[in-house]
Design a protein that fits this description.
Layout: E1 7-11, E2 14-18, H1 27-34, H2 52-57, E3 60-62, E4 64-65, H3 76-80, E5 85-86, H4 89-98, E6 108-109, E7 111-113, E8 123-124, H5 127-132, E9 147-148, H6 152-162, E10 169-170, H7 192-202, E11 207-213, H8 217-223, H9 229-245, E12 250-257, H10 264-271, E13 284-286, H11 294-301, E14 303-304, E15 309-310, H12 317-325
Parallel strand pairs: 3-7, 6-10, 11-12, 12-13
Antiparallel strand pairs: 1-2, 4-5, 8-9, 14-15
Helix pairs in contact: 7-9
Length: 359
Amino acid sequence: MMHPDTILEPVGDGYVQINPPYPPATQEEMDSFWDLPFTKLPHPRYKGKRIPAYDMIKFSVNTHRGCFGGCNFCTIAAHQGKFIQSRSEASILKEVKELNNLPDFAGNISDVGAPTANMYGMHGKNLELCDKCKRRSCLFPARCPNLDCDHTRLMELYKKIDSTKGIRHSYIGSGIRYDLFLTEDGFVDQSSKPYLKTLVLDHTSGRLKVAPEHTEDHVLQKMAKPTFKLFERLRKEFDKINRDAGTHVGLVPYFISSHPGCTLKDMECLANHPALKGIWMDQVQDFTPTPMTTSSVMFYSGIDPRDMKPVFVERDPERKMRQKSYFFKNSSKKSGKPLQGSKQKPNIAGGKTKPNKKK
């Protein structure tokens, strides 16, 4: 919601007041934030110490803030906003150029992304409709017809980044929303197929991250996620791109067990779904309630606040562990080879081998 109200909730003899957030930042404001003279280095107190979290992001670039996905278990929209706030290409390219001044930078950008990497520059076609809109998600239960999800601007940004002096490769380490460029029957628009192809062949370092979260549609409905049929379509197109190019890029799906609405039977169906054959389940989690999410309300109340109907919730720790165990139940000890659901990782050294562009 562009203009949320102030919320007052009685508590004891007083009340809690929740003030509305600031309006979404403009492009000029976003640039003013990111153009400040950050060193992109850890605090001096950590000198000589390795920080694993820093290793992941030290050669990454943020392109925007916010997410209009509206997943029920996610707090990103609560603290970054539903509306996308993008930096200008000039600001991003300035930061890319300055990466060359960092110690140990070898020309490889680990991530050109954000909460959802492929939402850069996206907004409503008619902003007056967005100004009045009260939907929590622009993608669920179906993609908003007013949403402009053209990926052309993003692909042009990738080209400009790759042509910057000193840059050898730019990768997308953040997750993507494939329902922005795929339907059950094919691609959304003319930019969709070229985007997926360049994403897989030019900007994926070994494995592409996506988040179907579950296979069963009634569970996905509680998550506010699209049908799993879209992932099946993604895998079909993904495998075709690999096959035609002779590459071996991997696909990494994120999944959640024990989400409200999910039963042990649902996890059994997930583990045996044919679309997941050959995929290694190493990006999985058991649902944990977090503040400010619809899923947490379901977990604690046993009610879906969207329709006030009861919803099954697995709270028993042992049974929750049984649900999670289905992610790994198909590993093979006899053959020594990882199968569907194995904890072992595939022997993938990286994506397509490419010559160094610049030195």
